Amino acid sequence: MNTIFENSLTFLRILPRAALILTLLAAPVLAVPMVRGDIGQTIEAPSLKKKGVGFVLLVSLKRA
Fold it and tell me: Would you say which domain of life the source belongs to (predicted)?
């Protein structure tokens, strides 16, 4: 009877620490669906205008 009491007391001492660690590990996983739920608020950088200077520079360097 005494060992059962000691085991349950040890378990009850470890339980809050285990719950805290489990909460800290699960928080990012549970936060992902909330962040992805709002698709309309995506901020994108403006697209750069394409200029053909790189190709001209490459061809002129090959000729030299």
Answer: Bacteria
Alpha helix (H) ranges present in the chain?
A: 2-36, 53-63
Q: Quick check: 49 pLDDT over 60?
A: yes
Q: Is 38 left (phi over 0), alpha (psi -120 to 50) or beta?
A: beta
C-alpha distances in Å from residue 43, one per residue of 23, 24, 48, 52: 30, 29, 15, 28
Q: Which amino acid is at 21?
A: I
3-24, pLDDT tens digit by residue?
Answer: 989 999 999 999 999 999 999 9
